[in-house]
Amino acid sequence: MYFESAGKLNTQKTIELAIKASMDRNIQDIVVASNTGYTAEFLKGLDKNIVVVTHVNGFKEPGVMEMPRETIEKLKGYGFNVYTGTHVLSGAERGLSRKFTGVYPVEIIANSLRMFGQGVKVAVEISVMALDAGLIPYGKDIIAIGGTGYGADTAVILRPSHAATILDTKVKEIICKPL
């Protein structure tokens, strides 16, 4: 499915399509980007391994966690794994590119994925992060849900690889994304 525009207004439909795909294909692992808990809440009650990947601590402001501790605890109460870690497609490399005004290989990967949309880039990134954290199994297809700004507008079936072998990641199917 292709959405006419990007953003939060597509969240409910994106989640519905992702859940349907997970049921149709018997995929047990869903990784979702969520900075405030809004998107993750749509997966409440689903009997799957749900991994919520947040923005890195300090994303908006040094030393400040964007997702409130109470929200993290609430999501964990649903049985979700909540993961906060260095963004695999930016992290330290972004610091180098800002300091030295250059372009570096990981940023090229990120920008190449953005050619398919911001949500596809996010889906790949959070899946690799979740795999590296040991929160999803290696060698299995998963569903990853990302977006453009707030909410979700992209769902992807993929088989992530570790950050050390990121180019072995396989995007199998785009379930939905903005045009």
UniProtKB/TrEMBL annotation:
Residues 13-157 form the Pyruvate kinase C-terminal domain. InterPro entries: DUF1867 (IPR015074), Pyrv_Knase_C (IPR015795), Pyrv_Knase_C_sf (IPR036918). Transmembrane segments: none annotated. It comes from Fervidicella metallireducens AeB. Coiled coil: none annotated. This is Pyruvate kinase C-terminal domain-containing protein.
